[in-house]
């Protein structure tokens, strides 16, 4: 049985065979993956050892103490947090062994081609079409090996598309059935002809995300993830993991948005007022409760698929980030309003703590939109967690092609 002691032994073996001080970073990460110490809860041969996720902390602590490089998880969050669990659950053996290793090491960045100009909260209404090259609608997955799909459409708000080699993509394969039933999930090669990525500038002045135009993009059937027409169910795995990965990150105390404002409070007594003190205390306590709740959620996840609790976490994360970054701007007064870098950069990651107060305030606005808006998450919590009556839905039994658009 692999317990904490055994993991320490394996980690020591890895460090002895590949000393971090003299080993190339990528070589070290590949060796770590091959030793099953990348994500220990993944199966053997796929970067893990099939042991409880909670044991990852043992490996991480040993590697950090030895000064080993990590895979820079903030840079590859979509791959790690969303693509990987979906591939693990629905991928074929070939897909798992082709994609998971370079995804984890960060050699291949992933992006998410879900949202469209006419389909964000109502994602199942999406109109990007994937048609079998023989022209059929391919409702059944029987006898569907080989061949390709031809994809046409437009996606929007695609974070990291300009850096990505691969994308998780959902597209409509059958317009004649209700919207949730006619969707299929694919892995799209972002370097293929017909994929065009254009930057979209945000409120921060940067362009983290993009619009992506897909024109006659050919995707081999071997890169379909899950059954034809079952894409909505496959996408649920991605979306539930997305909410956990946005709202439920592992952080030390004061590791999130509350950290910089608490630091300013300690270091700049001249800025303090009684009113701001009360608000800071309240937000500090709420941040700590939220951090510990995320920790508990992660422990509940030990055995698999996240539940709808991830939606609650993401809701709390968005509200707190916006309130705390607003408080920080108030605390700093005029200086908090300064934001002097309007260069249109193409950042590789969202870094809340390494930037100034103005950036945090502006970037946090997107937190209540990305990964599902707060209004939509409230609906999910109301219906799925609290069991309240569902919103009326009139389009459930209507073919997608007959829906008003
Ligand atoms: C920073 C950032 C990064 C993103 N990255 C990606 C990405 O990488 N890939 C990707 O696919 N998408 C990405 N998105 C898109 C994001 O998922 C969508 O913006 C989001 O789902 C909302 O969709 P929408 O923008 O079309 O707004 P809409 O769905 O049009 O919503 C407009 C307003 O109506 C409200 N609303 C809609 N439906 C309901 C309802 N049923 N009940 C109550 N209120 C409702 C919404 O809450 C919102 O206030 C990103 C967004 C942001 C801000």
Structure notes:
The chain is α+β, with helices and mostly antiparallel strands. Helix content is 39%, strand content 12%. It is built from 11 helices and 7 strands. It has helices at residues 4-17, 25-34, 56-65, 77-90, 93-105, 231-247, 258-267, 274-300, 309-332, 357-363, 374-385; strands at residues 110-113, 129-132, 148-156, 166-172, 183-189, 195-200, 209-220. A 4-stranded antiparallel sheet has the order 2-3-7-6, with no helix packed on it. A 3-stranded mixed sheet has the order 1-4-5. Strand 6 and strand 7 (209-220) form a beta hairpin. Helix 4 runs antiparallel to helix 5, helix 4 runs antiparallel to helix 6 and helix 7 packs parallel to helix 9. The protein is globular and about 70 Å long. The model is unreliable at 136-144 (pLDDT under 50). The chain binds flavin-adenine dinucleotide (FAD). The site of flavin-adenine dinucleotide has 18 residues, from strand 1 and helix 11.
Topology, element by element:
Layout: H1 4-17, H2 25-34, H3 56-65, H4 77-90, H5 93-105, E1 110-113, E2 129-132, E3 148-156, E4 166-172, E5 183-189, E6 195-200, E7 209-220, H6 231-247, H7 258-267, H8 274-300, H9 309-332, H10 357-363, H11 374-385
Parallel strand pairs: 1-4
Antiparallel strand pairs: 2-3, 3-7, 4-5, 6-7
The protein binds flavin-adenine dinucleotide.
Can you give me a brief rundown of this structure?
This protein has 405 residues and is an alpha+beta fold. Helix content is 39%, strand content 12%. It is globular, with a radius of gyration of 22 Å.
Helix segment tally = 11
Ligand set: flavin-adenine dinucleotide
Report helical residue fraction. Answer: 25-40%
Main pleated sheet = 4 strands, antiparallel
Mean pLDDT: 92
Find the count of extended strands (DSSP E, 2+ residues).
Answer: 7
What oligomeric assembly is this protein in?
single chain
Strand order of the largest sheet: 2-3-7-6
> N- to C-terminal separation?
56 Å
The Rg value, from CA coordinates, equals: 22 Å
Portion in beta strands: 5-15%
Secondary-structure element series: HHHHHEEEEEEEHHHHHH
Query: How would you sum up the global shape?
Result: globular
Structural class: alpha+beta
Report low-confidence residues grouped into runs of 5 or more: 136-144
């Amino acid at each position: 049985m692999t317990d904490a002691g055994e993991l320490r032994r394996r980690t020591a073996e890895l460090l002895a065979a590949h000393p971090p001080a003299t080993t190339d970073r990528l070589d070290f990460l590949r060796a770590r993956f091959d030793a099953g110490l990348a994500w220990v809860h993944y199966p053997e041969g796929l970067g893990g050892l099939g042991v409880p996720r909670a044991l990852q902390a043992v490996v991480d602590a040993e590697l950090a103490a030895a000064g080993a490089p990590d895979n820079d998880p903030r840079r590859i969050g979509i791959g790690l947090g969303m693509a990987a669990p979906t591939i693990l659950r629905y991928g074929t053996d070939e897909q798992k062994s082709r994609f998971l290793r370079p995804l984890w090491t960060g050699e291949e960045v992933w992006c998410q081609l879900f949202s469209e100009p006419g389909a964000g909260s109502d994602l199942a209404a999406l109109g990007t079409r994937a048609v079998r090259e023989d022209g059929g609608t391919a409702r059944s997955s029987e006898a569907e090996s080989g061949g390709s799909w031809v994809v046409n459409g437009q996606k929007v708000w695609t974070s990291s598309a300009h850096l990505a080699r691969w994308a998780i993509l959902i597209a409509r394969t059958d317009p004649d059935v209700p919207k949730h039933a006619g969707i299929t999930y694919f892995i799209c090669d972002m370097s293929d002809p017909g994929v065009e990525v254009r930057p979209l500038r945000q409120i921060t002045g940067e362009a983290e995300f993009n619009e992506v135009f897909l024109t006659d993009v050919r995707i081999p059937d071997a890169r379909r993830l899950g059954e034809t027409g079952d894409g909505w169910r496959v996408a649920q795995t991605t979306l539930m993991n997305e909410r956990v990965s946005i709202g439920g990150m592992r952080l030390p105390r004061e590791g999130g948005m509350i950290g910089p404002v608490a630091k300013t409070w300690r270091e700049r007594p001249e800025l303090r007022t009684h009113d701001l003190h009360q608000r800071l205390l309240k937000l500090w306590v709420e941040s700590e409760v939220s951090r510990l709740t995320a920790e508990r959620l992660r422990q509940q996840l030990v055995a698999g698929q996240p539940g709808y609790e991830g939606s609650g976490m993401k809701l709390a994360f968005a509200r707190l980030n916006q309130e705390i970054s607003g408080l920080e701007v108030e605390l700093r007064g005029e200086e908090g309003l300064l934001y002097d870098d309007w260069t249109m950069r193409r950042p590789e990651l969202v870094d809340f703590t390494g930037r100034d107060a103005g950036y945090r305030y502006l970037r946090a606005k997107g937190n209540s939109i990305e990964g599902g808006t707060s209004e939509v998450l409230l609906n999910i919590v109301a219906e799925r967690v609290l069991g309240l009556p569902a919103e009326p839905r009139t389009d459930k039994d209507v073919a997608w092609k007959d829906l008003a658009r």
